[in-house]
Fold each of these.
Amino acid sequence: MEVNCEGCAGCCIDWRAIAPTSSDHERRGPRRPLDDAYNLVPLMREEVEAFVEAGLGDAMTPRLWHDDSGIEIGGERLAAIGGKPAFFLGLRKPPKPVEPFEIGESEWLPTCTFLDPETLQCRIHGTDLYPMECAEYPGHNCKLGQQTECERVEEAFGGERLLDSEPPEALSGLLLGPQAIGEKVFVYPEPDELSPVVDRMLADELTDEDRAHFVASAAASGPGTTEHNRAVYETVLEQARAADSWVGRSIREWEAMAENSDEPDPSVAERVEAERGAPSTPGW
């Protein structure tokens, strides 16, 4: 599909704090995310495995959902499949100093960990790690007749972002219903372990250990089932625990800078990300 992404990155940034009107389209209906992330990109199981193998197990974070008819864990009713909490994995969104949509000044906004805040380009675009959901966006929305982030940006800030609204005939990542189980939507194998994790997720205080268990659960999932391969789980758990990539290290610094209310300067990405090994962006 043809889209105008230059100077935008609206689908990679949580820009609700600077929007002229409120938007909460991800939190409508009976299943609402426990987290407060915006436009969290769901990853396929093979993509999870690829990130782990690349030493980027610390780049991912889980999403679970409230569901009044689900199972109770930690005082919360959670969406479940076969009596086990359902989740997907997305890419972490630390605060970064960005200036999307040419708003005139940089702001600390939750931003995809792979987005360079200075160029507003993806550091893994066009690589083997680039998620299918990102590559096919906004095709899934158009196919399902749902508003795209491009259109939301147009409404809020003007300009033309969605230049072609005709979705491609083939959309590899559009999995709906049972076919998504074990491929895009996973189940946590040990529900009894989740009570303190749910509390931390609600408080936005997930630990590296929490995330590692979800990463391992996703990688060990069997396609089309709620079963898990225990050997794969243990192997991936150790890999995810050992991850100490430029992503994880830069996230810790971004969070510290934002918490200290440092002046939002996109150019510091050279020190915070590039000097730690982040790949360069492709250019327009």
Amino acid sequence: MTPSRTPADIPPQAGRTVVVTGANSGLGLATARELARAGARVVLAVRDLSRGGEAAASIDGEVEVRHLDLADLASVRTFAAEWTGDLDVLVNNAGIMMVPPGVTVDGFELQFGTNHLGHFALTALLLPQVTDRVVTVASMMHRTGRIDLDDLNWERRPYSPTGAYAQSKLANLLFTLELQRRLTADGSRVRALAAHPGWAATNLQGRTGNRLADRAALLANRIVAQSDASGALPILAAATSDLPGGSYLGPGGFQEMRGTPTLVGRTPSASDPDLARRLWEASAALTGIDLPAGSNAA
């Protein structure tokens, strides 16, 4: 029940198939690289096929690139419809961070729509084929997040890049909580886990549109952050270690910003089963997608 602490601790993954969203750079690429090295067949689910191909070429092992745009539900449906066979592990990693105001193809606030609703829909559609676990990447910033069920898409509130990101990351944890509740109630052996990378230097930072804030973030990356390879360790542990459903992993060092993977805590809001249930219902209503009858958690 101890999380793997280094890539060398990852158990053999031969014969397993893993989908990693957003795997053409950063945490996703680092995660995909180590899983492939351990023997898994890894599917890089990416928006940009050209960059995905470059990422795949840098990985030793069995890899495949498929198109997926989480900001477009039609793309999510197509990806799921084209999937055949079992899927051992789904890693919901892709995301955007503190970007200027925007909406997805379907009109959702961009961060909530991409980071939460896209992965919610993808998981619901693929879950009947998942055999082991779903891992969703959250963030320390869930601690400042607030779920406004009456304004999930920031149509009434003044838009806040930081607030919208924090809401989406809190939603990731609530999604994991409710998914695991449903899996348990259904008697499924599939597990839902979450992980966060601490403060990892990736290409997510520095995209707020505010030049001063972006410079500060990039400077802090150089001074404080750990590498994307180190940030991927909690994700890898969640994807491969023998841990109970509902586990949440992050770095065990100072303020969870860096260090080896360990089980970490979450805020009361992120542990609220009623809020998790209501967010699930709202997400299903917004996307028009829910768990089908006969799924692993119907």
Amino acid sequence: MSTETQDQKVAVITGASQGIGAGLVNAYRKLGHAVVATSRTIATADDAGVLTVRGDIADPATAERVIAAAVERFGRVDTLVNNAGVFVAKPFTDYTVQDYAAVSGINLTGFFRLTQLAVGQMLAQGGGHIVTITTSLVDNADARVPSVLASLTKGGLQSATKSLAIEYATRGIRANAVSPGTIRTPMHPEQTHQFLDALHPMGRMGEVDDIVDAVLYLEGAPFVTGEILHVDGGMSAGH
């Protein structure tokens, strides 16, 4: 670890190769943070302030490597953004054992071990911040989008966010979540856009910057913890 990076804040971001994750990497660099970016397919960064770690977040060994790399390279972990997630929309009885394993592996196991390790490091430093990306469908089920596995996993993350916030409220660690509607990213083919736009009371999908801005708000809000911030075009308010 070099002395010039010793006091620089460090953000760990999962699912960082594209979409919201890539937007978060850029945003935290603009804030002046060093970034540890991880995903299964992430490429090596040209920026010396970005350390990339390739791996499947569903494998706890990836979490170990990510936090170890952050501490070895930059000396600390100030923020963890649990952005990696997978969404499989199927009628409940059509979900397979493989679907369950894939969704729970990324959405739950990936969150659990990485957050444990990050909190351990944050406690040693005297504080930190955890932000988890969930989904508005957790609070507002929609018959047009069958989503039991999303609600089972991401709903668990929203409850865990509140538990973490309370458990560590006196020890300098905040925990918050951003609950998006559908966001316009490369994962949604053009032919689905009209349907996805119509799911939102505002009549359109959100943009990556909408979620990035919400995370940055929480980053700079020292009196906010245990918050589930809905950025969903009104989905959670009703239809």
Amino acid sequence: MPTYEYKCPGCGEFEKEQRMSDPPLKKCPHCGKAVTRLVGGGGGFVRKGGNWVSKMSSPGESAKKKSDRFMKQTVGEVAEDIAKHSRSH
């Protein structure tokens, strides 16, 4: 369930968990004054699929697997930098 931010002229800012289908609050649940729902930046993003490399390690992961994963991440970052620079010139 998403969390929405509201601003009350009396109480200040507060958060409220609501379903997406629920109408926005009109009154502050604390003092009853009219509230305004704020526009938030979102809670983040979700990566789907298996074609990305995580820098996080697993507890039972071998040293070789850790170094391979780190190398893939580093090579990927270098490749992205090269691609960015070649497009801008």
